[in-house]
Design brief:
Residues 161-311 form the DDE Tnp4 domain. With 375 residues, the protein is α/β, with parallel strands linked by helices. It has 17 helices and five strands.
Length: 375
C-alpha cells in the first residue's frame, strides 16, 4: 500500500512541475489603453443628434439624473467618465451593432463596453416611474381626453392600447420556443398605452412573443384598475384584437349606417398615434427593430430605457412654443354625447347586433348627431 501512495505522489509532482513550466512559457499580453475621442466636443449638435439620437442638451439632462450611478470612486486605471459611458450606450441603442464594434468606436474593450452598456441601461431604466406615468388626477385625465378629441372628435379617450414585437435572440432552454411569435422569429410582445402626443403612458415588457395581445392585457395592472372603475367612463382605443369591454372602444367590423362609418373613421384616426409611436420608437432606437443580441435578462432593461429616452425627447419637444391653435371642448362630455337626444330615435336592430352597449350608445347619440350636423 505504501508503495502505491509513493507512486501516485511522484507522478502528481511530475504533473505539477510540467504545468509550472508551461505557465513560465506563457507570454501575457501587455495591457493597452485605446484612444478615447471626445465626441461631445467633436460633433456639432446636428451630427451629435444623428449619431446618438439625443441633442446635447437632452444628453446633459439625462446625465445629470444618472451621473451619481455611473461615477467611479477613483480615476485609477484610466476609468471611463460618466459622459463617455452614456455616449457608448446611446450609440448602441442608435445602431444595434455588436458590443465589440461599440468598444472600438469609443476606445475600450468588448468586455468593458458590455459592462458599461448594461450599467447605464439599468440607470436609465430606473427613471421609468418618473417618465412613464399614467394620468392619475382629474386634470391630467381631462388633458389627455382633450388631446384625443382634437384629433378626430372622439370623446373621453384616455389612451390608445396596442402591442408590438421587439426582436431578440433565441433564449434557448426548455422555454425558448415560447418566445417565437406568429411571424416566426423570437421576440418579446410589449404592450404600451400611448397618448395623442406619442408619449408612452404605460408599458408591459415581460411577455414572450407567442402570447396574444388580449392575454397580456388580462394580466396587466392597468386592466385591474380599469375593471375597478377608477377611471370612471374614460375609454381606451384599441384594434379588433381585444375583447369587448365597456372601457375599450374598438372599430366595428361591418359598419352599415352613416353614424357607424363616422364612428369607425374617428376611432381609427384617434388610435393612429399608438402606431406612429411604435414606428418612431423603433426608428429612433434601431436596436429594438434589428434585434437585441444580449441575454434575455438584459433585454427588458433595454426596452424600458429606450422608452424612457423616447418620453424625454417627446417632453422636450412639447416644451417648445407652438403656433397651432388648440381646439377647446365646446361643452361637457355628457352634453356632447347626449346632444339632440338622438337616443330616442335609435333602432332596435342596431342595438341587438352590438354586444358593447356603451359603444352603441356612443354611436347612436354622439356620432349620429355629428353626422346630422354635417348634412
Amino acid at each position: 500500500m505504501e508503495a502505491a501512495y509513493n507512486f501516485i505522489f511522484e507522478h502528481e509532482n511530475d504533473d505539477i512541475l510540467e504545468n509550472l513550466e508551461l505557465l513560465d512559457n506563457i507570454v501575457r499580453r501587455p495591457k493597452t489603453y485605446k484612444e478615447r475621442r471626445d465626441y461631445f466636443e467633436e460633433y456639432d449638435d446636428v451630427d451629435f443628434r444623428t449619431r446618438f439620437r439625443l441633442s446635447k442638451e437632452s444628453c446633459l439632462d439625462v446625465l445629470q439624473m444618472i451621473e451619481d450611478k455611473l461615477e467611479y470612486p477613483s480615476n485609477r486605471n484610466k476609468s471611463i467618465s460618466p459622459i463617455n459611458q452614456l455616449l457608448l450606450t446611446l450609440r448602441y441603442y442608435a445602431t444595434g451593432s455588436q458590443q465589440i464594434t461599440m468598444g472600438d468606436y469609443c476606445g475600450m474593450s468588448k468586455s468593458t463596453s458590455h459592462r458599461i452598456i448594461h450599467r447605464v441601461t439599468v440607470a436609465i431604466a430606473s427613471l421609468g416611474r418618473q417618465f412613464i406615468k399614467f394620468p392619475a388626477s382629474e386634470e391630467e385625465v381631462k388633458k389627455e381626453q382633450l388631446q384625443f378629441y382634437n384629433i378626430a372628435r372622439f370623446p373621453k379617450a384616455l389612451g390608445a392600447l396596442d402591442c408590438t414585437h421587439i426582436r431578440i435572440r433565441s433564449p434557448g432552454g426548455e422555454n425558448g420556443e415560447h418566445f417565437r411569435n406568429r411571424k416566426g422569429y423570437m421576440s418579446i410582445n410589449v404592450q404600451a398605452i400611448g397618448n395623442a402626443n406619442l408619449e408612452i403612458l404605460d408599458l408591459v415588457e415581460r411577455w414572450p412573443g407567442s402570447n396574444q395581445d388580449q392575454t397580456i392585457w388580462n394580466g396587466s395592472y392597468r386592466n385591474t384598475i380599469f375593471e375597478s372603475g377608477q377611471y370612471g367612463d374614460a375609454f381606451l382605443l384599441a384594434d379588433s384584437g381585444y375583447m369587448n369591454r365597456p372601457y375599450i372602444m374598438m372599430p366595428l367590423q361591418n359598419p352599415l349606417t352613416p353614424e357607424e362609418r363616422l364612428y369607425n373613421e374617428s376611432q381609427i384616426r384617434s388610435r393612429n398615434p399608438i402606431e406612429r409611436l411604435f414606428g418612431i420608437w423603433k426608428r429612433r432606437f434601431p436596436v429594438l427593430a434589428l434585434g437585441i443580441q444580449v441575454q434575455l435578462k438584459n433585454c427588458l432593461p433595454i426596452i424600458v430605457a429606450t422608452a424612457v429616452l423616447h418620453n424625454i425627447l417627446i417632453k422636450a419637444k412639447e416644451e417648445l412654443p407652438s403656433d397651432d391653435p388648440e381646439i377647446q371642448l365646446p361643452a361637457p362630455w355628457d352634453d356632447l354625447i347626449e346632444q339632440g337626444h338622438i337616443s330616442e330615435h335609435r333602432h332596435n336592430d342596431n342595438i341587438n347586433r352590438d354586444i358593447n352597449p356603451v359603444r352603441r350608445s356612443l354611436i347612436n347619440n354622439y356620432f349620429r348627431s355629428l353626422h346630422l350636423q354635417s348634412l
